[in-house]
Design a protein that fits this description.
The protein has about 450 residues and is mainly beta. Helix content is about 0%, strand content about 65%.
Amino acid sequence: MKKIFTLLLLVFSSFFANAVCRIDTVLTFEFAPGSTVKINRGRDIYLYDASNKLIENVSQYWDNATLTFINEVKGFITYDVSGNVIEELGQRWDIATGTWGNRFRTLTEYTAAGKDTLRTEQTWTASATWRNTSRRSVIYDALANPISSTNQTWDVATSAWQNTYRQTNTFDAANNLVTALTELWDLSAGVWNNFSKATNTYDASNRIIKRIYERWNTTSSIWQNSTLNYYTYNAIGKIEEFYSLDWDAILASWEDRNKQFYQYNAAGNIIKDSSIFAVSGTWQNSEQIFYSYNTANLLVEKKYEEWNTAASAWLKYEMFTYEYNASNDLIAKDQYSNWNTATTLYDDHYREEYKCTDIPSAIIENVAQTDLKIYPNPVSNSQLFIDTKTEQTFNLLNLNGQSVKSGTVQKGTNKIDINSISAGFYFIKIGNEVRKIIIQ
């Protein structure tokens, strides 16, 4: 799998004394069922500049025939004088020629305040030239709120950009996103047509408490209800319940869809995440996740269980464990899946080991905002929450350096739906800060 990614700085989220642990190498292994013998799968090597900004990543796979690591993909990152990523270049190794070949690149432009205004994706062609594929442009108001974003694709036949969809946003006096209107481009008519609309409601603490989605009915030319979400918080402001309903057009009423419940310990760490869904008007169990922490409040175990209706019982199906060194840096993660009831073991076991270098935290720029919280991490059940004290844009990047989801987070608690995003390592850029997250 190609692993070329973009971020301002790759560091673990755990901090100690006067240093942070910067990842230099990630080793991946697999195990035979029940075995403790590690089998090589691959490795990723990261290179940094004098300012500890990531500038190159090489991904290699293990070749059992030669017992060596073989090049697979490589990524390069270029920054402007303000530290903004302006180019992300991806290459693939050609075994036959023993050379690296270009595959894709992303070019990004920014405002003087560091807000990205234009992001262009390109691919490398057989004629050894870069060809446009897609781009996204953003317009901001005087308060730096993104009021409009337009997505386009490149038409090779006409060598011109073609509109695809755009989003227009409105904000309240507290810079909370109130409405987000999505329109699709009608190429034949040359006009924008309504497609969907989201409307948010906030409490006195500027936390979102209600979001309603509507779809445009092209036949009747009116907005029709689609989905309704409610958010409930506990006494310390953390999300406690997420409740979603779907609109039944025949009954002209809201019908239960699913609920998500979150429990926390005294330190504010999530310890249980459970979900139920509605079937013919009756709530049924779906999934539950248990989190365990060490004395330093670091996640050490995460266990998944799913409800088996036939057996009327919870069954194991996946587990993650995390190891740390004496400085509380994450040094390894194990993933277990496919629980075998006959052997009472997980059939699949994979492991990642992280090799890092301690560097003085004084030279790290934008490592952590005290007013920014992202949880849970690792992310489970397709729901990511972001707490921030200011409205900011976010961009979720995969290990290929490509944006898989982007948008705006508002002041307060934001729920990001990542249901369509595959499991793996990602990097989320919020404002000028980048955090590493794991989606499971």
